[in-house]
Design brief:
Elements lengths: L18 H31 L3 E10 L3 E10 L5 E8 L5 E9 L5 E9 L8 E7 L1
Antiparallel strand pairs: 1-2, 2-5, 3-4, 3-6
Length: 132
């Protein structure tokens, strides 16, 4: 009876772990991870922290040919720009769209604007605000 060997034959399968390859993989993973974090940080800063204007539709009242929209805009003191609002009919068709401009030193603007429509609108939706 012979005893089974638990060791692999020398030189037949190569080294079980290549320390240089492991080190290179760790360095490459670290560099790619750091690049990903930098990219996410850039997007966060550019789209969230640097945003100069934010707005919300507080309420709206629809009639046959117009929708009165109560907008609340928060902005930096030196920012000016516009917000785009649209209205849709009950069947989902767009019946009105307009841009409303704002400027001035106020950081909070609370304004009721009138959006003219081609038919009775059932919604008032803020599509977005943009700085000039």
């Amino acid at each position: 009876m012979s005893t089974a060997s638990t060791r692999l034959p020398e030189g037949r399968y190569g080294r079980s772990s290549d320390r240089r390859a492991d080190r290179r993989l760790r360095i490459a993973g670290s560099v790619l991870g750091a690049a990903l974090l930098a990219l996410l940080g850039f997007f966060f800063y550019h789209y969230v922290a640097k945003s100069e204007i934010s707005a919300a539709v507080i309420s709206f009242k629809a009639s046959d040919d117009a929708v009165r929209v109560h907008l609340e805009v928060h902005k930096d003191a030196d920012a000016s720009g516009y917000c785009t609002v649209r209205s849709q009919a009950a069947d989902g068709a767009e019946v009105g769209r307009a841009d409303f401009r704002f400027s001035g030193p106020a950081t909070r603007i609370d304004k009721v604007v009138t959006l003219r429509t081609t038919a009775e609108g059932t919604t008032a939706e803020l599509l977005g605000c943009h700085a000039d």
